[in-house]
Amino acid sequence: MEQHPTVIIQSPSATAETVMMMTDSNLPAAGSRSSVRGSRAPLPCPHLPESVQQSNTGLQEHVRRHDTPLLSPGDNPYDADYWHRQYLQSEGELAAERGKISQLQAANQKGNDEALAWRKNLSKAEERLEDEKWEHDQTKLKLQQKQQDVNKWHGLLLEANREMGSATNHQQIRHQLEDTEIAMRTKRLRVDIRDFALEYGEIKEGDFRAPASSYSLLKKYLCVPEQTLDAYIKSPSDRPIIVRAFLWAFLDAEVFSRFNWAPTDIGNAMQSLCGLIEPSDKYLSDTGAEVERKRVIWRANTTSLLLETMDGSTEKTYDSYRGFVSKNARSLADWLEPIVCRNSRDIIGPLSKLLEESLALDEALSQQVAKWTWYFPRTTPCQFDKTMMDSSTHKRRKGQAYEVHLVLAPALKKRGRSSGDDFHVNEVQVKMEVEIDLPRQAGSGSRSWLNLLRTKT
């Protein structure tokens, strides 16, 4: 009796490969290899039961729904050539992947080697940098030491030059300043006085009130006609001008060339002595030049020695100095109080600073061999002299004469040189500041003191 292959289908979703494997397992063993290799066609199964045919129909429907391709005759899983080709292909792909891996490993190793080499180079560079820093610090220390040595030897050289100069020229004087430095200090004092006048002297038109007191104290120092003085005081915006002129006139009369920076008794003695030995313009001549030279050098030397002596008696000097400043600051504050419309206590401090600055400048001028003097015109009004005067607030026309009504700051003149020569030569180092225009009358407008100051020194 002919046996049929047994096919067990447990699921309608069985694949074609499952069916064929189950079918092949029931085929006779003899001649099967040759039959398979001899023909690519599927084995005939004419006597399959109806259940198998139905399952094949379900399998085809499953393939159609899920797009699962059936094995082609050339993809027979029992075909050795097929699997050999698959093996060779896999071996090729594996070899290719191994080659890529080897290349990547070689590149990685090369990168690691380069990184290690650069790390070593970096370490060496850092070591060299540290060595360079250390050498730089050592060189810097040596340079500083050399600079200190240079300063030391330079100081010794200057000291030797001074001693040699003192030995060869007994008439050499210390504390001599350059003309530019003296002019700069003078202009700085001008600016400070101008700023004080601007801050405390200007009065707004609405706050204007005429001072109740008389101006006898102002007239004592200001050599101007009474109508000129009244014109400036009655103009609120021009009051700083009269304050400025008054302060300079006071300094010229009470501070400069009076040795007030020294104790009173010493200052009076020095003032009298210098008045006796100071050369006069009308007695200067070529024949008496050497005598006058010795006098001025002696005066400068004596002043320097006096200052050195005062350094040893600081308490007495300080008391005299502070007493002079305090007394005159209070006097100035009382005199200016009705003009500036401020309480006198508010301006004592600023006035004290101006007096101290003036005394310091006078002390420096007193030690110079050349004679420095402050120059005011004897009377005003006077003719404008462009060689000695300056009025930056007025545009002057060439060839036209102008009249000076008020002196804001005196001129500073120098006679002679620090060597004690050329005492017949008189030079203007700082020009006088003057006012040419009188204040405008009420109702015609007044000038702005701020605009005036912006154009001055």
Write the layout of secondary structure elements.
Elements: H1 16-25, H2 32-38, H3 50-66, H4 80-168, H5 179-201, H6 216-221, H7 226-233, H8 239-254, H9 264-277, H10 289-311, H11 314-340, H12 344-366, E1 371-375, E2 382-383, E3 389-390, E4 403-404, E5 406-409, E6 411-415, E7 426-430, E8 432-435, H13 449-454
Parallel strand pairs: 3-8
Antiparallel strand pairs: 1-6, 2-4, 5-8, 6-7
Helix pairs in contact: 5-8, 5-12, 8-11, 11-12
Give the % helix. 55-70%
Task: Enumerate the strands of the largest sheet in spatial order, edge to edge or round the barrel.
Answer: 1-6-7
Radius of gyration, Cα only, in angstroms?
A: 57 Å
How many helices? The count is 13
Class of secondary structure makeup: mainly alpha
Can you tell me the residue ranges where pLDDT is under 50 for at least 5 consecutive residues? 1-48, 442-457
- Which percent band covers the strand fraction? 5-15%
**Secondary-structure element order, N to C:** HHHHHHHHHHHHEEEEEEEEH
Number of domains: 2
**First and last CA, distance:** 143 Å
Shape: elongated
What number is the mean pLDDT?
A: 75
Main pleated sheet: 3 strands, antiparallel
Describe this protein with a few key phrases.
457 residues; disordered N terminus; three-stranded antiparallel β-sheet; three-stranded mixed β-sheet; mainly alpha; 2 domains
Summarize the structure.
Residues 115-149 form a coiled coil. This protein is mainly alpha-helical and 457 residues long.
